[in-house]
Design a protein that fits this description.
By secondary structure, this protein is mainly α. It has helices spanning 2-43, 49-52, 55-68, 71-102, 104-119, 126-133, 137-161, 165-173, 178-189, 191-216, 221-230, 234-266. The protein starts with a helix and ends with a helix.
Length: 267
Protein backbone atom coordinates (compact mmCIF):
# COMPACT_ATOMS: atom_id res chain seq x y z
CA UNK A 1 0.00 0.00 0.00
CA UNK A 2 2.82 2.38 0.94
CA UNK A 3 4.61 1.52 -2.34
CA UNK A 4 1.44 2.34 -4.29
CA UNK A 5 1.07 5.67 -2.52
CA UNK A 6 4.73 6.41 -3.16
CA UNK A 7 4.31 5.74 -6.90
CA UNK A 8 1.22 7.93 -7.03
CA UNK A 9 3.12 10.68 -5.25
CA UNK A 10 6.01 10.38 -7.71
CA UNK A 11 3.60 10.61 -10.63
CA UNK A 12 2.00 13.67 -9.06
CA UNK A 13 5.39 15.37 -8.63
CA UNK A 14 6.35 14.45 -12.19
CA UNK A 15 3.13 15.99 -13.45
CA UNK A 16 3.83 19.19 -11.49
CA UNK A 17 7.31 19.43 -13.05
CA UNK A 18 5.92 18.85 -16.54
CA UNK A 19 3.28 21.55 -16.00
CA UNK A 20 5.94 23.98 -14.77
CA UNK A 21 8.12 23.25 -17.82
CA UNK A 22 5.12 23.66 -20.14
CA UNK A 23 4.20 27.01 -18.59
CA UNK A 24 7.78 28.29 -18.92
CA UNK A 25 8.01 27.02 -22.51
CA UNK A 26 4.80 28.79 -23.52
CA UNK A 27 6.02 31.99 -21.83
CA UNK A 28 9.27 31.86 -23.83
CA UNK A 29 7.44 31.11 -27.08
CA UNK A 30 5.06 34.03 -26.54
CA UNK A 31 8.00 36.34 -25.80
CA UNK A 32 10.03 35.27 -28.83
CA UNK A 33 6.95 35.09 -31.06
CA UNK A 34 5.98 38.66 -30.21
CA UNK A 35 9.34 40.02 -31.35
CA UNK A 36 9.39 37.85 -34.48
CA UNK A 37 5.91 39.05 -35.44
CA UNK A 38 6.93 42.65 -34.72
CA UNK A 39 10.00 42.31 -36.97
CA UNK A 40 8.00 40.72 -39.80
CA UNK A 41 5.23 43.31 -39.53
CA UNK A 42 7.75 46.14 -39.93
CA UNK A 43 9.69 44.40 -42.72
CA UNK A 44 6.56 43.66 -44.78
CA UNK A 45 4.94 47.04 -44.24
CA UNK A 46 2.06 45.88 -42.07
CA UNK A 47 3.06 48.60 -39.62
CA UNK A 48 5.08 51.78 -40.11
CA UNK A 49 8.65 50.87 -39.13
CA UNK A 50 9.57 54.53 -38.58
CA UNK A 51 6.79 55.05 -36.02
CA UNK A 52 6.73 51.63 -34.37
CA UNK A 53 10.40 50.76 -34.97
CA UNK A 54 11.37 47.06 -35.04
CA UNK A 55 13.49 44.69 -32.92
CA UNK A 56 16.53 44.79 -35.25
CA UNK A 57 16.60 48.60 -35.18
CA UNK A 58 16.11 48.60 -31.42
CA UNK A 59 19.01 46.19 -31.00
CA UNK A 60 21.22 48.36 -33.20
CA UNK A 61 20.28 51.44 -31.17
CA UNK A 62 21.19 49.65 -27.93
CA UNK A 63 24.50 48.48 -29.43
CA UNK A 64 25.35 52.03 -30.52
CA UNK A 65 24.62 53.27 -27.00
CA UNK A 66 26.87 50.59 -25.55
CA UNK A 67 29.68 51.31 -27.99
CA UNK A 68 29.49 55.02 -27.21
CA UNK A 69 29.69 54.24 -23.49
CA UNK A 70 26.29 55.82 -22.80
CA UNK A 71 24.27 52.66 -22.11
CA UNK A 72 25.70 51.86 -18.68
CA UNK A 73 25.74 55.53 -17.76
CA UNK A 74 22.01 56.03 -18.36
CA UNK A 75 21.11 52.59 -17.02
CA UNK A 76 23.20 53.18 -13.89
CA UNK A 77 21.62 56.56 -13.22
CA UNK A 78 18.09 55.14 -13.39
CA UNK A 79 18.90 52.12 -11.19
CA UNK A 80 20.75 54.22 -8.62
CA UNK A 81 18.00 56.85 -8.40
CA UNK A 82 15.35 54.15 -8.10
CA UNK A 83 17.18 52.28 -5.34
CA UNK A 84 17.84 55.54 -3.47
CA UNK A 85 14.21 56.70 -3.69
CA UNK A 86 12.93 53.20 -2.90
CA UNK A 87 15.15 52.85 0.19
CA UNK A 88 14.47 56.30 1.61
CA UNK A 89 10.74 56.14 0.86
CA UNK A 90 10.37 52.70 2.46
CA UNK A 91 12.36 53.51 5.61
CA UNK A 92 10.63 56.88 6.03
CA UNK A 93 7.20 55.32 5.45
CA UNK A 94 7.80 52.56 8.01
CA UNK A 95 9.07 55.11 10.56
CA UNK A 96 5.97 57.30 10.12
CA UNK A 97 3.70 54.23 10.32
CA UNK A 98 5.37 53.29 13.62
CA UNK A 99 4.76 56.82 14.92
CA UNK A 100 1.08 56.58 13.93
CA UNK A 101 0.78 53.23 15.72
CA UNK A 102 2.63 54.53 18.77
CA UNK A 103 0.37 57.56 19.27
CA UNK A 104 -3.35 57.31 18.62
CA UNK A 105 -3.55 61.10 18.89
CA UNK A 106 -1.01 61.59 16.07
CA UNK A 107 -2.81 58.94 14.02
CA UNK A 108 -6.16 60.68 14.34
CA UNK A 109 -4.65 64.08 13.53
CA UNK A 110 -2.72 62.96 10.46
CA UNK A 111 -5.17 60.41 9.04
CA UNK A 112 -7.15 62.85 6.81
CA UNK A 113 -3.94 64.44 5.54
CA UNK A 114 -2.48 61.05 4.59
CA UNK A 115 -5.69 60.15 2.75
CA UNK A 116 -5.59 63.45 0.83
CA UNK A 117 -1.90 63.08 -0.02
CA UNK A 118 -2.54 59.54 -1.26
CA UNK A 119 -5.30 60.78 -3.59
CA UNK A 120 -3.18 63.58 -5.09
CA UNK A 121 -1.57 62.56 -8.43
CA UNK A 122 2.12 62.60 -7.56
CA UNK A 123 3.06 63.54 -11.13
CA UNK A 124 1.62 66.99 -10.39
CA UNK A 125 4.34 67.47 -7.77
CA UNK A 126 7.12 67.09 -10.33
CA UNK A 127 7.31 70.74 -11.44
CA UNK A 128 7.24 71.81 -7.79
CA UNK A 129 10.26 69.64 -6.98
CA UNK A 130 12.08 71.03 -10.02
CA UNK A 131 11.53 74.62 -8.84
CA UNK A 132 12.41 73.82 -5.23
CA UNK A 133 15.34 71.45 -5.77
CA UNK A 134 16.59 72.22 -9.27
CA UNK A 135 17.13 70.01 -12.30
CA UNK A 136 19.33 67.43 -10.59
CA UNK A 137 19.28 64.00 -8.97
CA UNK A 138 17.71 65.44 -5.79
CA UNK A 139 14.50 66.35 -7.62
CA UNK A 140 14.35 62.91 -9.27
CA UNK A 141 14.84 61.07 -5.97
CA UNK A 142 12.28 63.34 -4.27
CA UNK A 143 9.79 62.36 -6.96
CA UNK A 144 10.44 58.66 -6.31
CA UNK A 145 10.11 59.15 -2.55
CA UNK A 146 6.84 61.09 -2.86
CA UNK A 147 5.22 58.21 -4.76
CA UNK A 148 6.42 55.39 -2.50
CA UNK A 149 6.29 56.88 0.99
CA UNK A 150 2.51 57.38 1.29
CA UNK A 151 1.76 53.85 0.10
CA UNK A 152 4.24 52.48 2.64
CA UNK A 153 2.64 54.47 5.46
CA UNK A 154 -0.86 53.26 4.65
CA UNK A 155 0.10 49.62 4.12
CA UNK A 156 2.28 49.38 7.21
CA UNK A 157 -0.13 51.25 9.48
CA UNK A 158 -2.96 48.98 8.35
CA UNK A 159 -0.73 45.96 8.96
CA UNK A 160 0.13 47.16 12.48
CA UNK A 161 -3.55 47.61 13.30
CA UNK A 162 -4.42 44.10 12.06
CA UNK A 163 -1.99 42.32 14.38
CA UNK A 164 -3.85 39.85 16.61
CA UNK A 165 -4.87 41.85 19.73
CA UNK A 166 -4.72 38.68 21.84
CA UNK A 167 -0.96 38.51 21.28
CA UNK A 168 -0.61 42.09 22.47
CA UNK A 169 -2.71 41.36 25.55
CA UNK A 170 -0.60 38.31 26.30
CA UNK A 171 2.72 40.17 26.34
CA UNK A 172 1.14 42.98 28.33
CA UNK A 173 0.18 40.52 31.05
CA UNK A 174 3.91 39.76 31.40
CA UNK A 175 4.61 43.46 31.91
CA UNK A 176 5.84 44.35 28.41
CA UNK A 177 6.04 48.04 27.58
CA UNK A 178 5.09 49.68 24.32
CA UNK A 179 8.59 49.42 22.84
CA UNK A 180 8.73 45.73 23.71
CA UNK A 181 5.30 45.15 22.15
CA UNK A 182 6.52 46.90 19.02
CA UNK A 183 9.74 44.91 18.80
CA UNK A 184 8.45 41.50 19.91
CA UNK A 185 4.93 41.42 18.46
CA UNK A 186 4.05 44.19 16.01
CA UNK A 187 7.15 44.22 13.80
CA UNK A 188 7.55 40.40 13.53
CA UNK A 189 3.85 39.94 12.80
CA UNK A 190 3.98 42.65 10.11
CA UNK A 191 6.91 41.21 8.15
CA UNK A 192 4.61 39.82 5.37
CA UNK A 193 2.99 43.26 5.06
CA UNK A 194 6.44 44.83 4.93
CA UNK A 195 7.51 42.53 2.10
CA UNK A 196 4.28 43.31 0.24
CA UNK A 197 5.01 47.03 0.66
CA UNK A 198 8.51 46.49 -0.75
CA UNK A 199 7.08 44.74 -3.82
CA UNK A 200 4.67 47.61 -4.44
CA UNK A 201 7.26 50.29 -3.72
CA UNK A 202 9.94 49.01 -6.05
CA UNK A 203 7.60 49.54 -9.00
CA UNK A 204 6.28 52.87 -7.74
CA UNK A 205 9.79 54.15 -7.10
CA UNK A 206 10.76 53.29 -10.67
CA UNK A 207 7.70 55.18 -11.92
CA UNK A 208 8.68 58.19 -9.79
CA UNK A 209 12.26 58.03 -11.07
CA UNK A 210 11.20 57.98 -14.72
CA UNK A 211 8.76 60.86 -14.21
CA UNK A 212 11.50 62.80 -12.45
CA UNK A 213 13.91 62.09 -15.32
CA UNK A 214 11.29 63.30 -17.79
CA UNK A 215 11.28 66.66 -16.03
CA UNK A 216 14.62 67.24 -14.38
CA UNK A 217 17.42 64.99 -15.55
CA UNK A 218 20.23 65.06 -18.08
CA UNK A 219 20.77 61.29 -17.80
CA UNK A 220 18.81 58.08 -17.26
CA UNK A 221 16.36 56.00 -19.26
CA UNK A 222 13.61 58.57 -18.77
CA UNK A 223 15.86 61.23 -20.28
CA UNK A 224 16.61 58.95 -23.26
CA UNK A 225 12.89 58.35 -23.83
CA UNK A 226 12.17 62.11 -23.89
CA UNK A 227 15.21 62.86 -26.06
CA UNK A 228 14.37 60.06 -28.50
CA UNK A 229 10.82 61.34 -28.82
CA UNK A 230 12.00 64.89 -29.47
CA UNK A 231 14.28 63.83 -32.33
CA UNK A 232 11.79 61.22 -33.64
CA UNK A 233 14.23 58.37 -32.95
CA UNK A 234 11.69 55.71 -32.03
CA UNK A 235 14.34 52.98 -31.98
CA UNK A 236 16.07 54.81 -29.13
CA UNK A 237 12.72 55.27 -27.35
CA UNK A 238 11.82 51.59 -27.69
CA UNK A 239 15.30 50.47 -26.63
CA UNK A 240 14.99 52.63 -23.50
CA UNK A 241 11.52 51.25 -22.76
CA UNK A 242 12.70 47.65 -23.10
CA UNK A 243 15.69 48.36 -20.85
CA UNK A 244 13.26 49.89 -18.40
CA UNK A 245 11.18 46.71 -18.47
CA UNK A 246 14.32 44.69 -17.79
CA UNK A 247 15.24 46.91 -14.82
CA UNK A 248 11.74 46.61 -13.34
CA UNK A 249 11.81 42.81 -13.64
CA UNK A 250 15.25 42.57 -12.01
CA UNK A 251 14.28 44.88 -9.16
CA UNK A 252 11.07 42.94 -8.54
CA UNK A 253 12.89 39.61 -8.52
CA UNK A 254 15.44 41.12 -6.14
CA UNK A 255 12.64 41.88 -3.67
CA UNK A 256 11.18 38.40 -4.26
CA UNK A 257 14.56 36.88 -3.42
CA UNK A 258 14.62 38.92 -0.22
CA UNK A 259 11.17 37.53 0.57
CA UNK A 260 12.49 33.97 0.17
CA UNK A 261 15.44 34.69 2.48
CA UNK A 262 13.19 36.26 5.12
CA UNK A 263 10.72 33.39 4.78
CA UNK A 264 13.47 30.82 5.42
CA UNK A 265 14.62 32.81 8.42
CA UNK A 266 11.11 32.79 9.90
CA UNK A 267 10.69 29.02 9.55
Amino acid sequence: MSEKISLEHQNYLRQLRLNAILVRLVQILLFVGFFILWELAAERGWINGFIFSQPSRIWNAAVRLAQAGDLWKHLGWTVWETILGFSIGTVLGIAIAIALWWSEFISRVLDPYIVVLNSVPKVALGPIFVVWLGTNITAVVAMAISISVIVTIMMMHTGFQEVDPNKIKLVRTFGAGKSQILGKVIIPASVPTMIAALKVNVGLSLVGTIVGEFLASKAGLGYLIVYGGQVFNMSLVMASVLLLLLVSVLLYYGVSKLEEIVGRGRE
